[in-house]
Amino acid sequence: MAYSITQFENNLTNSLVALDNNFTTFGALVPIPCTISGTNTLTLTQNTGGLVPTPTISAYTNGMLFTGVAAATNTDTVTATVGSVGTLNIYKDTASGPALLSGNEIIINNAISLRYDPALNSGAGGFHLTSSTQNVGLAISAASVKVNNNSTLTNLLSGTVSITFTVAPGWTSQDQAFSITAGLASALPATGDFMLVNPPSVAGLGISYAGYVSTVASLSSVASVATINIRQINSASASLASNSGIYRYAAMRTVP
Question: Rounded CA gap, 188 and 158, in Å?
């Protein structure tokens, strides 16, 4: 609500009250600093002392934000109460939607924020948690990654395969091929991708391994297949035993 100079001049008694009401309304729209106590049952007490006390709220409003420093690390689901307004569940935002906390999302002495959302808990209301550690342990999904303004990583695919090599004669190599299938070609490695290969155990002196994608083809309108070759290289003069077992591989695609 806007006030003109005339309104303040002609309504000296009521104008200051109205101004106080405006400040109270505004105070509920900005982050409200609180003192937080509790571990899995949090009590938030609004800061009322100091030069700039916060207004006491009587009800939660959509988007209302409360901030503070955690007094303990949660070990289970968590609820929060601001003053005596009401106790509500706290949720973490995930790729599949809000989920109840389960432990270690709130860390002692770290800053947290709770944003009220009346749609949470099937319309009963709740708080969204924002914390300085909420991304720890979570997967990050990105179309590409670029570090220090260098090459852009656009795809990274990895897996395991069981391979049996025969004894490798001196100065020879042998390939073992396998195929992987996916509904989308983007979920497969492509010819020209960088390939890393890790054998199941330490290879004999003179034995090394390389990998490459030999072919990628469409099986149908809904499936594609990629053929990967693992090459065993014997650079010694004598025949060497193979390393058979579970091999790990990773295909990387970059754009300069």
Answer: 10
Give the 3-state secondary structure of residue 181: strand
What whole-number distance in Å separates Cα of residue 8 and Cα of residue 206?
A: 92
Q: Is 236 exposed, middle or buried (0-12, 13-18, 19+ CB in 10 A)?
A: middle
What domain range is 202 assigned to?
Answer: 145-255
Domain shared by 250 and 227, yes or no: yes
Structure confidence by residue, pLDDT tens digits, 30-79: 799 999 999 999 999 998 765 556 778 889 999 999 999 999 999 999 99
In a domain, 138, yes or no: no
Of 131, 157, 189, the residue at which a domain comes to its end is 131
CA distance linking residue 255 with residue 104, whole number of Å:
38
**Tell me: the pLDDT tens digits for 226-248?**
999 999 999 999 998 878 899 99
- Cα distance between residue 76 and residue 41, in whole Å: 10
Residue 3 domain-assigned (yes or no) = no
